[in-house]
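sry for the spam today, last one i promise. struct tokens for design, 498 residues
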């Protein structure tokens, strides 16, 4: 394959890469909460106040900046008062959406906010619009945030938290075009305004209210919702959901064309960000409303032998590349986004962590989030990739995917360049061109790859797919060879050219 080029403009910052673009999502679904995050204080599995110690340690290493909870579809059938007070007195409820399991409500508001405190993460609470009431959500906000002497503040103190939690991020419903009430955009906009009118600044914590956006890149929903919303001021975020889905029979069974098909679907996140932000700009040219993608990831067909309602799936090398392609999209469009949350954190969909009994493993997707941490807080730089496109087929249709993609950011004199080479077989050499005569003084190179496209980690071989440190001579040659089917992160200290 010919020489590719990666051109990085150091003088054209796109915007700051908010840590919140690497956010997480934990829903009461399958084994995400019970057995994944929560085992209870009496469990034989090591725990910290009922939260699994091994999962807590693993998540702590990637420092999740924000965590969304309790759903998802579960949020619009969740009543927060079920999850506060003595655990033995909390009601047992049927999980309407995810297999009709019994929810003990042992993991509720206090337990979730303690998880966030342990991890240093901002909490993002999704409120119940579908089956709840304005009063219920308004009282949840008062319970969490009010510092005065109200009955709800006293109740919070009696439950172990005299000081308010100071929760800023609140979702006003979830997927209200579907499981959140099957609203049309106009009806949901009316409901949103009714709810948001009563969601107030309690004791100095001004809420960041997030409205339900479209299913995928649905222009009609956005246009109609914002038209009906009008000049209503109490909205700070607007959340789209985008699952790139699957290609092939299962998460671990696919051919080469299906490898490319899924990665090309992941790359369509670019279109969603650009087109949704463009539509929003027509109504909100000052960008007072931030674009959020609070559910994203792969979604494969049910795993044989497991409850299909629990959405458990393996995470392979292919999923890792899909995650990297998506995170790079967020970085390249950093000025257009305020938050993004992968679905989901543990044991569900594109999970970062899988558990089974007292065992735990880190998935290839976890390693991508670990590898990409150095982007957080950096200035996204305008970066162009010129590499031969890769053709593939979906049935009789011919498609193509970019031969290289990625993102670059700068913090001080340290450049982070992340690159995905999706080619199933061939490496790609690229010349890295830095504008304004800057040069690389020294660099480190970390890679995620495997000879098997469907490689994944198991409890017996938990490091089958992991981050490898590989030598690079990019500082001497200005070039680097990106291995096939790989995610690469190069961290380079820059110096001025002669």
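last one done:
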């Amino acid at each position: 394959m010919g020489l590719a080029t990666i051109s990085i403009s150091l003088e054209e910052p796109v915007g700051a890469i908010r840590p919140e673009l690497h956010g997480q999502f934990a829903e009461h679904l399958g084994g995400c909460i019970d057995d994944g995050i929560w085992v209870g204080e009496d469990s034989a599995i090591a725990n910290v106040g009922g939260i699994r110690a091994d999962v807590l340690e693993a998540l702590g290493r990637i420092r999740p900046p924000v965590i969304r909870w309790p759903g998802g579809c579960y949020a619009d059938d969740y009543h927060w008062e079920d999850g506060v007070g003595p655990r033995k007195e909390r009601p047992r409820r049927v999980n309407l959406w995810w297999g009709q399991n019994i929810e003990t409500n042992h993991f509720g508001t206090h337990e979730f906010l303690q998880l966030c405190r342990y991890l240093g993460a901002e909490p993002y609470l999704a409120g119940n619009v579908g089956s709840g009431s304005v009063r219920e959500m308004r009282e949840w906000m008062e319970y969490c945030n009010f510092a005065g002497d109200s009955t709800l503040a006293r109740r919070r103190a009696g439950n172990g938290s005299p000081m308010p939690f100071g929760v800023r991020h609140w979702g006003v419903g979830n997927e209200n075009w579907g499981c959140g009430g099957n609203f049309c955009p106009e009806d949901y906009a009316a409901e949103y305004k009714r709810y948001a009118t009563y969601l107030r600044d309690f004791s100095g914590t001004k809420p960041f209210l997030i409205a339900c956006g479209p299913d995928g890149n649905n222009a009609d929903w956005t246009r109609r919702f914002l038209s009906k919303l009008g000049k209503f001021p109490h909205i700070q975020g607007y959340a789209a959901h985008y699952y790139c889905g699957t290609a092939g029979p299962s998460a671990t069974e696919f051919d080469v064309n299906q490898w490319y098909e899924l990665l090309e679907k992941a790359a369509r996140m670019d279109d969603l960000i650009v087109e949704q932000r463009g539509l929003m700009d027509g109504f909100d040219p000052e960008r007072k409303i931030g674009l959020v993608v609070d559910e994203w990831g792969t979604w494969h067909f049910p795993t044989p032998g497991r409850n299909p309602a629990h959405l458990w799936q393996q995470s392979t090398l292919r999923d890792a590349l899909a995650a990297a392609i998506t995170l790079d999209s967020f970085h390249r469009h950093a000025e257009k986004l305020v938050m993004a949350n992968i679905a989901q954190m543990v044991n569900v969909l594109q999970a970062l962590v899988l558990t089974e009994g007292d065992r735990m493993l880190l998935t290839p997707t976890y390693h991508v989030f670990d590898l990409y941490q150095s982007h957080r807080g950096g200035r996204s730089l305008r970066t162009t990739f010129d590499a031969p496109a890769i053709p593939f087929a979906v049935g009789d249709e011919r498609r193509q995917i970019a031969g290289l993609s990625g993102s670059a950011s700068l913090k001080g004199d340290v450049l982070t360049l992340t690159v995905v080479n999706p080619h199933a077989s061939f490496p790609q050499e690229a010349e890295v061109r830095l504008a304004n005569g800057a040069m690389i003084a020294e660099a480190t190179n970390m890679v995620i790859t495997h000879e098997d496209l469907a490689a994944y980690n198991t409890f017996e071989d938990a490091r089958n797919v992991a981050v490898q440190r590989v030598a690079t001579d990019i500082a001497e040659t200005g070039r680097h060879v990106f291995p096939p089917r790989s995610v690469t992160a190069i961290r380079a200290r820059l110096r001025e050219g002669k």
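The chain has eleven helices and 25 strands. ok im logging off now
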